Amino acid sequence: MKFIVLFACIAVALADVSHLDTVVRFDSVVNPDSYNYAYETSKGIRAEEAGELKNAGSEQEAIEAKGQFSYTSPEGENIAVSYIANELGFQPTGDHLPQPPAIPELIQKALKYLADHPPAARK
User: Fold this and answer.
1) How far apart are CA 69 and CA 49, in angstroms?
2) Tell me: the pLDDT tens digits for 60-84?
3) Are 90 and 81 in contact (CB under 8 A)?
4) How far from 105 is each of 14, 47, 110, CA to CA, in Å?
5) What percent of the chain has pLDDT over 70?
6) Vertex 54, ends 48 and 57: CA angle to 5°?
């Protein structure tokens, strides 16, 4: 039994942990009405965020957070996302995110016509 425990200890000591990601920088500040943090890992993952309380004491009180994060995809592509999160939801932006197609010209004209000539209200 002692041999098994000794062998297990030696195996753990000699294990290759170079594939593990470690935090190389971490900063954090938390205040009653705001916060911010930032971190970076040994494999190049980076993130930072700042948040603050908006409309304190009102019925519209909400936290708004702004931040960004980046990493390298398994395919070697740099992925970077900036975002804002507030009472309207999470709103990310990034070059790798899909974009909606352009609105066709005829649809734009129809929407403009409807805005300029709203239908009469029904009674």
Assistant:
1) 9
2) 888 999 999 999 999 999 999 999 9
3) no
4) 66, 40, 9
5) 85
6) 140
The predicted pLDDT at position 58 comes to 87
* Of 82, 52, 77, 54, nearest in space to 67 by CA: 82
- In terms of DSSP bridges, do strands 34-41 and 46-54 run parallel, antiparallel, or are they unpaired? antiparallel
Residue 110 one-letter amino acid = A
SS (H, E, C) 73-119: CCCCCEEEEEEEEECCEEEEECCCCCCCCCCCHHHHHHHHHHHHCCC
Letter string b/e over residues 14-41, b meaning 16 or more CB atoms within 10 A of that residue's CB: eeeeeeeeeeeeeeeeeeeeebbebbbb
Considering only CA atoms, which of 61, 59, 21, 56 is closest in space to residue 41? 21
Strand partners, 89: 86
Amino acid letter, residue 116 = D
